[in-house]
Write a structure and sequence with these properties.
169 residues; 12 strands; mainly beta; single chain
């Protein structure tokens, strides 16, 4: 018997968007360089560990995204784990692609890739696979190096907002 007080989603795209807005996700940032050396990057909520041995991680992205041509043509990226203090950087890297590297929130890191400052953790990843799925791609990286910054509360993305975790459930 259906509960008529619960809203029913009737189409696939609405069901997908509305349901995933309710899934809190950790926020990371992926940075790279274009073949001509320009820094590029984006905010991602799709970062996941794939394996510990060898150390593999994945992230997903649209192949129509402004950063895709660089990711498609490079061998390495830096994956940054963002904390609550990095909220403004997360928003900046989700904004206008021409302004994402305006400012002093980054510096050249390993292999001269853009390294975001003051993040809780970062990892240098060598791209070992790009798997197209419709207009998107799953990108697999093998971690080759990394570093830890000062600890911080997690940065979450939920219901289209950046949040800091609250009380223990």
């Amino acid at each position: 018997m259906e509960d008529s007080s619960e809203p029913r989603i009737v189409d696939d795209l609405s069901a997908f968007k509305l349901a995933f807005r309710r899934l809190a996700a950790g926020v990371s940032a992926i940075t790279a360089r274009t073949p001509d050396g320009r820094p590029v990057g984006f905010t991602a909520t799709s970062l996941a560990s794939l394996a510990a041995v060898p150390p593999l991680a994945t992230f997903n992205m649209a192949r129509v995204a402004s950063t895709w041509p660089a990711i498609e043509q490079t061998d390495h990226v830096i994956v940054h784990i963002l904390g609550a203090r990095n909220r403004a950087v997360g928003a900046k890297l989700a904004g206008d692609h021409d302004r994402r590297f305006d400012g002093d929130h980054w510096e050249p890191g390993p292999l001269s890739l853009p390294l975001l400052r003051d993040v809780p953790a970062w990892m240098l990843g060598r791209i070992v696979g790009r798997y197209p799925v419709h207009d998107n791609a799953v990108v697999v990286v093998q971690i080759e190096d990394g570093g830890l910054g000062e600890p911080d509360d997690a940065l979450l993305y939920h219901e289209r907002e950046f949040l800091r975790p609250g009380a223990i459930a």
